[in-house]
Design a protein that fits this description.
By secondary structure, the chain is of the alpha+beta class. It has 2 domains: 34 residues, no CATH class; 173 residues, Butyryl-CoA Dehydrogenase, subunit A, domain 3 (Up-down Bundle), CATH 1.20.140. It contains 6 helices and 9 strands, in the order ββββαββββααααβα. The strands form 3 sheets. A 5-stranded antiparallel beta sheet has the order 8-7-6-5-9. Strands 1-2 form a two-stranded antiparallel ribbon. β5 and β6 form a beta hairpin.
């Protein structure tokens, strides 16, 4: 951090009192109401200076940690949105588990069933309950991730001088970055564990072990990476 010494040069203005017309000396940039030292009458002088927004011409470039954190959180948001519509677990190559239900594909034919339908039909209440919880946790993860990305964009725009927000909003965006980065990781991991419990409770090992798809592994890896990077950011600030 560099400290610049600034020399302020004040110029003076000589004016005539509008009442007694005796010469008065004021600062050149003075404005407002004044009292004449000679006749003690009040008068107005000067104009209120206009508010000027100074841009950072010598702002520091974005660090590698911040850039990587930006990339991981953006990728995490994209992956979570995609995760609402793709399978997280495959069983026996024909049964897929998604946040909104199960999809069976056999001999080129497929059929989907939602968690609420399974619950009302009574075919597997444990699976349906864990599936509904899985769905809720996934939605919470998506919302939290989007909020985090919005906070990140907001703070970046404030730092660059292109956005003006209240101090309270800036504090919230800064303070809750850590929380909104952790919540998606916890919700995604907990949702996966719950649906695994439901599947194993209903089907056991008859159809094969419910392995996570590559998408699930990549998603958890990205969410874990972004949470690690947000901690690195906070340590360097």
């Amino acid at each position: 951090m560099f400290i610049h010494n600034m020399v302020m040069i004040h110029t003076m203005a000589e004016i005539l009192c509008p009442h007694c017309e005796i010469e008065i000396v004021l600062d050149d940039d003075a404005f407002g109401e004044f009292e004449c030292p000679h006749c003690e009458n009040e008068f107005e002088w000067g104009e209120k200076p206009k508010t000027r927004v100074e841009t950072k011409s010598d702002s520091e470039p974005m660090s590698g940690i911040v850039a990587l954190s930006h990339a991981l959180h953006g990728a995490g948001a994209l992956m979570l949105i995609i995760g609402l519509f793709v399978s997280w677990i495959t069983i026996g190559g024909f049964l897929e588990i998604t946040p909104f239900g199960m999809r069976v594909s056999l001999f080129g034919f497929g059929e989907s069933v939602g968690w609420f339908s399974i619950l009302t039909e009574g075919g597997g209440s444990m699976l349906a309950i864990t599936g509904i919880l899985f769905m809720i946790l996934t939605i919470v993860a998506v919302i939290s991730q989007i909020i985090h990305v919005a906070f990140r964009v907001m703070l970046h725009m404030v730092d660059s001088g292109s956005l003006d927000i209240s101090m309270e909003m800036a504090y919230r965006a800064y303070h809750f970055r850590w929380h909104t980065s952790l919540i998606p990781l916890v919700c995604a991991g907990l949702g996966y564990i719950l649906i695994m419990i439901g599947v194993l409770t209903l089907l056991g090992m008859e159809g094969g072990f419910p392995w996570p798809n590559f998408f699930t592994i990549a998603l958890v890896g990205i969410l874990g990476g972004q949470f690690y990077m947000i901690n690195q950011e906070l340590m360097n600030e």
